[in-house]
Amino acid sequence: MKIPFIKMQGSGNDFILIDEFERILVPGDKKPGFVVGMCRRHFGIGADGVIFVQHSDELDARFLFYNPDGSTAEMCGNGIRCFAKYLYENTDIRKEKLDIETSAGRIVPELTVKDGVVREVRVDMGRPVVEFVDKEIEVDGNRYNITSVSMGNPHAVLFYGEIDRVDVTGIGRSIRNSTGEFPGGTNVHFVQRINDNEFRIRSYERGVEDETLACGTGISAAAVAIRLKKMTDSAQILFHAKGGDLRVGMEIENGKIERVFLTGPAAEVFTGEVEWSATP
Length: 280
Hints:
This protein is an alpha+beta fold. The chain has two domains: about 1-120 and about 265-275, Roll (Diaminopimelate Epimerase, Chain A, domain 1); about 130-265, Diaminopimelate Epimerase, Chain A, domain 1, CATH 3.10.310. The chain has helices at about 30-40, 75-90, 170-175, 215-230; strands spanning about 1-10, 15-20, 50-55, 60-65, 70-75, 100, 105-115, 115-125, 130-140, 140-150, 155-160, 185-195, 200-205, 210, 235-240, 245-255, 255-265, 265-275. The chain has an 18-stranded mixed β-sheet that branches. The mean pLDDT is about 95.
């Protein structure tokens, strides 16, 4: 059968969107294999993940996300912005504030729309869950100071004076697979301070198993880590990722970070149809 898809990207993080709002096109037990095949850059469409747009019984739509290795992820900050843009521009759900069901709970994207086109999306990423701050951890004989923050999915944040010199893939893979502090694995982020409210970031993503151009939930977690380590007094932080810039705002009450908001663009790359059979 031919399955229509749309290729989108947010800050260089690219995704394949499959519209299953009216009917399921890929059965649940077949989705992991389908995703692996579609995400292979030399043999498939190529992507950092596949997003299934599905019906929600209670909210506007359901966001179902798969990593390139066929595993599911609770949330994806760049992916949810692409998802929101798709809903507004391609369905009857033309709301500038959406209620989206995800595996990490209810997510509320707010759209900036001009002439019927979504220019950027601000996403309420929810309340961060802090596991530990600046904890020294030994991994494969090396010691790292790590801050661990969950934004619906797990993140380990490390700080360096110059991240271009960091072996992101090697160190990222080592920490990601450390079963001591991270029994379920984690995403790993390397952050460099430029000034009080401006930082650079590089990310190793679990499920992709490599460096990606940006990670929205990871950038949100990094902003939390920056505040917790008192590296800034600002509640607004600009991040420069390899794929582009993203802004994070934090709602702070009595010194505690209550909500995190991620703002950035999303763009359509191309559309098409892929031939797929449920049987090998």
